[in-house]
Amino acid sequence: MELPNDIASCHRIILELASFIDGIKPQLQGYANKVGQLEARVKELEAQLHQNSRNSNYPSSMDKYKPKPAFPRAKGGKIGGKPGHDGGTLKMVPAPDVVKTHTPEVCARCGQIHDSEPFIIRGRRQVFDIPPPRIEVTEHQVLDWVCSGCQALNQGQFPQDVCSNTQYGLRLVAMSTLFNNGYNIPRNKVQLIFSDLYGVTLNEQTLQAQNELAYGCLAQDETHIKTKLLQSEVVHYDETGFYVGKDRFWEHVASNEFYTALFVHPQRGATAHQSDVSILPSFQNWAVHDCWSTYFNFTGCQHAVCGAHLLREFTALIESGSKWAQNFHAFLLDLYERSDKGKAEISTKERPKALRKYQRLLQQADKEEPPPTQKPRGKPKKTKGRNLFDRLTKHQDAVLAFAFHTEVPFSNNQAERDIRPTKTKMKVSGCFRTQYGAEIYARIQSFISTVRKLQFNPFNELYTVLSGGIPEYRVAGG
User: Lowest CB count within 10 Å: 247, 319, 426, 450, which one?
Assistant: First the structure.
């Protein structure tokens, strides 16, 4: 292309180019917007790809590699059991069930046969084993007799719990119930266990009837557990999804270090907790949870947000290059250490400084996070960082509760541990067939979890309940 030599022609070309550029500006702007959207989408997909148990709510079983722990571990500790740890070493008992003696019959030196010489115990060894499994059949007979004086017929009566010609006893019922609900063994495997060990054939309807019997007998214990939780200073709340057939249901948990209350509902939100099976509407103390908005609808109690959940969210943002999340992560861990890992509270003098720093971090987050993007319809789209910023702003008191109140823990791990058996149940069984079956599991699992926390034997306690007695954990003041 030949360039003109005169100024007028140059001006004309410049004006033509300027006009052309103005004409394609909207198209260029559209390309720029599209590139920005694609970059945001790539960043979002990369964040999803790198999610693990350290930076999200994913369980550790889904990790492709072992991530670092959310909390920094103390260095320099000794390997092995710690002081006060109850080891599982097998120890000899003073009164064994069976004693077998082993003595030479003749003298090893002269060959004389043992006569009346006294024995000297040189050593003792004990073998711990189980006796051969067998079913014990007890026959109940009712006997009649005629009074010799008035000739009246006196008739014996069967015990109330013996109501058919043949039936299974309550110990077997307690065992099958524990196998299916406490140990998450599928019913077909429970059938195999009883068939292989005891030669007993339990059909599926029998196992269902045994679960229903336990469910009915544990109604009073469910009420007792809920009453104890309502009296607790701190209760942890959480929920997890599962399927009943093809329908989505939710299992909700309210628990502390001694008691566990589970219930099943088709809804995850406020509708579930407004029902009569939830204790949340009547609870008046500290509710610790994962910042799910539903919980804040109940204003009769004080709320505390799980710090472990926040640390995981900060970690995910840090991996995307967020500076404010890194500073907030360090701030939260500092409060965690200064409050003795959430077991105590920081001093009154330190609190204003902590509040000021909290506000500075929020200001930094507000500057770094992009504002919401308006959409043609619906709510404006926000980044994960912006959503987290909004929650930290709205629920400041709940976030800092662990550092300002001794009774409030740092994390909601108690509820997560208590709800985890349900996830194991789902991995083994896939789903529940009916809502009633899910409710049976929830009540029985609540009882088993509570009894274990209070350090009682679940089998003995369940057998006592099935027998119509008062379980020991309640008699002992539990």
Answer: 247
